[in-house]
Amino acid sequence: MHYTKTGRTDNICNICGKKEVPLLSWDHVPPKGGIDLSALEIRNYISRSTISAKERDISQNGLKFRTICRTCNTKLGTKYDMAFNKLMLDIAHQVTSCLILPSPILKVKTYPTRIIKSVLGHILASKTSDCQSYIDKTTRNYLFNESAILPNDIQVYYWFYPYNCTIIRDDVLTLSTKTRQLSHYSVLKSFPLGFAVVSQNDFNDLFFNLTKYNTNDINNEVDIPLNISCPFDWDYPERLNADDIQLVSKDSTALFASKRQKKNI
Ligand SMILES: [Zn+2]
Questions:
Q1: Domain count of the chain?
Q2: How far is CA 235 from the centre of its chain?
Q3: How far does the centroid of ligand 1 lie from the alpha carbon of residue 73, in Å?
Q4: CA 130 / ligand 1 centre spacing (Å)
Q5: Of 62, 194, 236, 261, which has the fewest Cβ atoms less than 10 A away?
Q6: From the CA of 100, how far away is ligand 1's center (Å)?
Q7: Residue 16 lies in a domain
Q8: What is the pLDDT of residue 3?
Q9: How many angstroms separate the alpha carbon of residue 246 from the centre of ligand 1?
């Protein structure tokens, strides 16, 4: 029995829009190679606290979605995921080593444009229904076009995420009743980094903005900063605050995955 939806039933690739015969390929989100691929218990994010252990899906090796074709999956993996994986491993190594770090601000060498494309591609791959938001359409045009620049009304933020759960929340619309500001975002979080893709407005000055390093050169390598001193809560920013109204489509992906608990013998 599957309680969480992890694939498209129409076999249409989320990235190129072509129909794959006979089946779409499985894509790991986040990509495999930079994260712990232990067996996971997967729950619906919104009802996570009320569902029983029996109603949790089990994956033996990470979160996977059958939503993109083999060609797009291979391109994503070979062009961008290696940079994503190296960034995750470098940060994990630094924060878990026994060395006392000289400063809470790490500097990590990476390829920001490859990271942005990897994050956008895998967030698109995590959607299991027809996905046609502004961010989705822009991602399709931008992903494999190496001369394209990401429009500046889409921002990708990152922050230190020191928690052992993986969270995917796609297409959250939040209206602040205080500021009347509407934000549309998706989040992908897994140790040691959280990412948020946001359209139309600045998200949070406290997050680091990866898009400010974005160029049309995927080989542009820079040192990016990361503050590891005071991490945000595990459910930030998607947690519903008292002053916010949150709208979420019933088809949008909302998953909470944690390491599978071993049964007592
Ligand atoms: Zn495709």
A1: 1
A2: 14
A3: 7
A4: 14
A5: 261
A6: 45
A7: no
A8: 67
A9: 31
The per-residue pLDDT for 163 is: 95
* 47 falls within a domain: yes
pLDDT of residue 187: 96
- For residue range 33-42, list pLDDT tens digits in order: 887 777 888 8
Query: Is residue 121 pLDDT above 90, yes or no?
Result: yes
Kindly give the distance from the C-alpha atom of residue 127 to the centroid of ligand 1, in angstroms, as a whole number.
14
Say how far apart CA 90 and CA 95 lie, in whole Å. Answer: 9
Domain span holding position 62: 25-259
Question: Would the pTM count as exceeding 0.90?
Answer: yes
Rounded Cα distance, 194 and 235, in Å:
10
* 244 alpha carbon – ligand 1 mean position (Å): 36
**Least trusted range by pLDDT, from 38-52, 76-90, 209-223, 243-257:** 38-52
Distance CA 69, CA 82 (A): 19
- Segment 117-146 shows an average pLDDT of 95
| C-alpha R_g of the chain | 18
**Residue 251 Cα to ligand 1 middle (Å):** 21
The answer to whether position 11 is within a domain reads no
Q: How many CB atoms lie within 10 A of CB 164?
A: 13
49 CA to middle of ligand 1, Å? 35
